Amino acid sequence: MPERERALLRLHHIHGLTMDRLATMYGEPRSSIARRVMQARERLLKLTRGELASRLKLEGSELESLLGLVRSRLDLSLHRLMD
To answer: Residue 1 pLDDT more than 90?
Structure first.
């Protein structure tokens, strides 16, 4: 992933910066930052899906089931980091 996308995800999800704060930092409209964060999330999910499918040789429902588990664990981990 490009460094800027990684930075946006890190700042928003790990450091808890709001879209408004990111917009101020980057000097861009809030809507542009929100769109970039969403695109970065989608790219990360696509890359993760491809990597898991390749490494674990999973397809279809098996892959989606694993991704669901990863998402739920990631959400819990992010919430713990932000508390």
So the answer is: no
Residue 78 has pLDDT above 70, yes or no: no
User: How many Å apart are CA 49 and CA 33, to the nearest integer?
Assistant: 24
In terms of Cβ atoms closer than 10 Å to its own Cβ (0-12, 13-18, 19+), residue 26 is: middle
Express as a percent the part of the chain with pLDDT over 90.
45
Say how far apart CA 83 and CA 3 lie, in whole Å: 26
Asked if residue 33 lies in contact with residue 19, where contact means CB atoms within 8 angstroms, the answer is yes
The terminus-to-terminus CA distance of the chain in angstroms comes to 27
Read off the pLDDT of each residue in 13-23 and give the average, rounded to a whole number: 93
CA neighbor of 9 nearest in space, from 22, 27, 20: 22
In angstroms, the CA 74 to CA 69 distance is: 8
